[in-house]
Amino acid sequence: MRILALLVTLAAFANAQTKPYHLETRPEMASCFSVHVMDADSVELDLPAAVTDALSCPSMADLSPSDELLVYSDEMSVKLYFFGAAEPIEVVKLPEGMWDVSGASWFGDNRFAFVGIDQQKNPNTTVFVVDVVGDEVTRVIQKETPVYYACASSCYSTPDEDFYFETHDLMGIRKPGPFDEEPEYYTLVVTPF
Questions:
Q1: Distance separating the N- and C-terminal Cα atoms of the chain
Q2: Which residues are CB-neighbours of 94 under 8 A, at least 6 positions away?
Q3: Is 90 helix (H, G, I), strand (E, B) or coil?
Q4: What's the pTM value of the predicted model, to 2 decimals?
Q5: What is the pLDDT of residues 98-137, one digit of tens each?
Q6: Is 130 helix (H, G, I), strand (E, B) or coil?
Q7: Is 79 exposed, middle or buried (0-12, 13-18, 19+ CB in 10 A)?
C-alpha cells in the first residue's frame, strides 16, 4: 500500500512539473528558424495570424517562467501575446536602426529585460526592462548602456549570461570586450527615472 501511495504522489508531482507550453524551432532558409508554440503534448497551438507570421525568423521568442505569455520580436517592435487573447500587444517600438534584440531574462513572471543592438550608435546597446501586471504592460524602462554582444548573421546578447537580474531593481551586465577573455560585469540599477 505504501508503494502505491508513493507512486501516486510521484505521478502527481511529475504532472505538476509539466510545463503547459514550450517552444520548438524549425530551420527555415539560410540562418533563419521559425518558432512554434507547442502544448504539453507537443501539439502546436493555433495562434492568431499576426503572432504566427512574426514567429517566422524572429530575433527573439521567449516564454515567461509560468508559460502564461509569449514575448517576441516583430520587425521593428517587441510584442507580448497572452495565451487565449485575440491579438498581441506592442511593448516597445524599437528605435530606427535597432535591428537586433536579444532573448528575454526574467525576474519572476512580471518583469523581463532584453537588449536592443544598434551597431551605428555609441553606446550601441540599450537595456529594456518591462513590467507586466495581469494582461497589461505597466512600465518600460529604457537605458542606453554598454552590454556585451556578438555578431554572426545577426547580433545578440545572451540572456542570463550577458545580462541578468540580481534583484528586482539591479541587473548584472557583462561589459563589452573580446569573447575569449574572462568576462567582467557591472551592476545596473533598473528603477524608474
A1: 61
A2: 76, 77, 78, 101, 116
A3: strand
A4: 0.85
A5: 889 999 999 999 999 999 999 888 778 999 999 999 889 9
A6: strand
A7: buried
